[in-house]
Amino acid sequence: MTRDPAPRLSRTDIARRAALDLPDGGIVNLGIGIPALCSNLLPEGVELRYHAENGILGFSEMNTKFDGDPNIMDAGGNFPKLVPGMAFFDSVESFGLIRGGHIDVTVLGGLQVSDKGDLANWMIPKRGIGSIGGGMDLATNAKRVIVAMEHTTRDNKPKIVNQCSFPLTAPNCVDDIITDIAVIKVKTQGLFLMEAAQGWSPDDVQAITEPEFIVSDDFKPFQTA
Amino acid sequence: MTRDPAPRLSRTDIARRAALDLPDGGIVNLGIGIPALCSNLLPEGVELRYHAENGILGFSEMNTKFDGDPNIMDAGGNFPKLVPGMAFFDSVESFGLIRGGHIDVTVLGGLQVSDKGDLANWMIPKRGIGSIGGGMDLATNAKRVIVAMEHTTRDNKPKIVNQCSFPLTAPNCVDDIITDIAVIKVKTQGLFLMEAAQGWSPDDVQAITEPEFIVSDDFKPFQTA
Amino acid sequence: MLGYHQAMPVSKTIDNFNDAVADIPSGASIMIGGFGGAGGQPTRLMLALRDLGVDDLTIIGNVAGISATTHYGWREGADDPKPVDQGMFFASGQASKIICSFPVPGTTNPLSEIEKAWRAGRAEVEIVPQGTLIEQIRAAGAGIPAFYTPTGVGTSVAEGKESREFDGRTYLLEKALTGDYAFVRAQKADTHGNLQYVGTSRAFGPAMATAAKITIAEVDEIVDPGGIDAERVGTLGAYVDRIVQRKAGDPYP
Amino acid sequence: MLGYHQAMPVSKTIDNFNDAVADIPSGASIMIGGFGGAGGQPTRLMLALRDLGVDDLTIIGNVAGISATTHYGWREGADDPKPVDQGMFFASGQASKIICSFPVPGTTNPLSEIEKAWRAGRAEVEIVPQGTLIEQIRAAGAGIPAFYTPTGVGTSVAEGKESREFDGRTYLLEKALTGDYAFVRAQKADTHGNLQYVGTSRAFGPAMATAAKITIAEVDEIVDPGGIDAERVGTLGAYVDRIVQRKAGDPYP
């Protein structure tokens, strides 16, 4: 295993990059972990309508601290700021919205993603117990699924793999992978490297990515705005 | 065909008798026609919570005239009086309530009822087109189904029959039949004559009822309060 | 209770009813909200579609086509204006099919436009139990392709359908029902497309809004975001593509 | 808008939480509303059930058992009182099974009571996708014995389940899920049992209220009929059997 050619991005920077892909005016659901960080990192002038599984649509930012009302929460246990035009509803409606394909984009965390776009993010087999939450519904049914995660495990093993060894969240569901060193698009022809972090060549990225990817004709440095 | 031994009851009197069977505090849905007349004929001190398919629960009486608001209606096109404790909701919720078995009693009109409790009330075959509305859901799923109707057709043919010749609303669903001359209970052993109108003997009722009924041990005159 | 933070509105407002329906092609399926009667009926959208003149339409509604002849759900005897209903598309020859639960009243005289078209062989009429119809529509919007219901077992509704037992009771398999467009009527919209309904005007509207490819709302009033209480949103803006405000003093209820 | 006519109330009010749960037998299945966290959690009913001491319970919830160790959905670092969750029935040995979507947080340390019981072989944990779980519960209340969903296809969730294609996409058959009791938390009840929720406290409560044989509501306030706007009823009184009012100043949120 070679050493990193340049620093990897922070979790916040991954989230900032993911936030760039969120469509102005879109209905967006953010998973826990890195994805949740997107909410306060939107580009200037972009307004989203965040959805959370527990029954809230239309918030756009998080309070940095619990403000005393446990009845205004998102699914990750964060506390959204109230904005005009938001709505509260129950879980039946909330998952009708998800399963019915009305979520424009979901950003989810990942343990493993395969070159076919399979996603595993709900259980580490050696633990023997996991948490599905709304993840399977989101991964299966959102119009676009972005996975935001570190590129490798802590011991530098690829998380982008030929075949997920962890239990799947959904097969063939991921559209985009945004990591701390690369932006990769999942197409039917395979993986396409779209961007790499400063100081990382396509070969550097490939060295810690199990499936071979194609370097996109549009390949460019990691976008920041 | 013999002549009637005594007058038959009015539609209003049929409804008044049906209203006697409605349980205090119960959730009740009234079909169009004779059943709808029940709403203003409850015994003193009985309070019901009427449900209508179009999304209203908890009304207890009708306005006698349209009061100008087409947004407060029952399913029959009548205009309920507003009472404290009522609720408005959409048709998904309304039929969840019905299909889920949460309606205590429904009173429906009938074209034919068989001795097995089959009900036909949505289409006259020679017309070739009919209206199901919420009738099939109510007949199939209410905890108790009372049919309130005239005992015979206009040309004095039995409407209580061995086998319905009209298209069924639901098989094996009717618990009680209340007509202008009799109250009949449908049990697995067959029909039981519970009451007959003043001047009508069991034989008089049997003469215009196709299936043979059993005269109940509790047989008594038509109840009025 | 809500101390609102400011946000930018995303407007879906269309100026007039004709523009709102202008892209509807011949052959489209149109879901029409409400229950039947004036309350909850998107009357102005319906009139605009009639004026658009496209044909071969499939209309999906609940109580359908009986108000014009019976005044069902309208002020009794009203003649200013006369009640209108989904029958207008059959009178005009624009609709070739209706899927509904209640297309004819108990009395036969006078015949409704839907019944006339059906008798003349000009229109197909598919009659569905009301609870099945609304659940099919809800299923389409909620990503459920099919479900089982006890309603219709042992009747003509079951013909050609699969049935199956669960815990000793028989049920029918029913499929989701979508539409190309939904017309819904609400009292208020905000510019995000959130809708607020009153009384019994909800009925089929909220489910249809989730089930159609394009949802158009006819409302009495359009307000800024925040003008509808977050606790009182009956249809999420996520489902609504276009909103049009009725003129004050519209003679139609 | 509403000019109310007078009507007689039918009260479902119970004086205290212990009485409200007193008839729950060992072996019962208990649906617990809310999402996870303090908002929407029927905490006092849960504590009363724990004090009742029955066992072999099946608990049905969503996010389950992670607040006590992570403060999920509670004031961060709160210790007055400490967060409580469904784990209490596993710590006490009363529950033998949980059906839920989210029983463990991403971090393993410290272990939750549910995970401890599972590791020790004292409890079965059935993990269901959240959208499937709420739809199963909704189905039970709405008379739908089974439905198809795309969620879980190609995953371990599909094991042992029927799958079927509709329009070229594969779906799983999922069955309705009922409970013996549902505990739901709302802000207001009227004496007919109508419930009003605020914010994100709805979650699983409204569907569970429809699905259980007996539904018990824990509320901040009980009002006379009319004290809840007819447009704001979140759970119909038809579904609610018992209501209990919390004491003012209860230290639990």
Please state the second-level CATH architecture of chain A: 3-Layer(aba) Sandwich
CATH level-3 fold name of the largest domain in chain C: Glutaconate Coenzyme A-transferase
Computed Rg of chain C? 19 Å
Low-confidence stretches of chain A: none
The CATH architecture of the largest domain in chain C: 3-Layer(aba) Sandwich
Structural class of chain A: alpha/beta
- Write the CATH homologous superfamily of the largest domain in chain C: Glutaconate Coenzyme A-transferase
CATH fold description of chain A: Glutaconate Coenzyme A-transferase
Structural notes for this entry:
Chain A has one domain (11-221): 3-Layer(aba) Sandwich (Glutaconate Coenzyme A-transferase), CATH 3.40.1080.10. Chain A is 16% helix and 24% strand. Chain A has five helices and 13 strands. Chain A has a ten-stranded mixed sheet. A three-stranded mixed sheet of chain A has the order 7-6-9, with no helix packed on it. The two termini of chain A are 32 Å apart. By secondary structure, chain C is an alpha/beta fold. Chain C folds into two domains: 21-127 and 178-245, Glutaconate Coenzyme A-transferase, CATH 3.40.1080; 132-177, no CATH class. Chain C is built from seven helices and eleven strands. The longest helix of chain C has 12 residues, at 130-141. Chains in contact: A-C, A-D, B-C, B-D, C-D. Chains B and C meet through helix 3 and helix 4 of B and helix 5, helix 6 and helix 7 of C.
Q: Main attributes?
A:
heterotetramer; A: 225 residues; 10-stranded mixed sheet; 3-stranded mixed sheet; 13 strands; 16% helix; C: 253 residues; 3-stranded antiparallel sheet; 11 strands; 25% strand; disordered N terminus
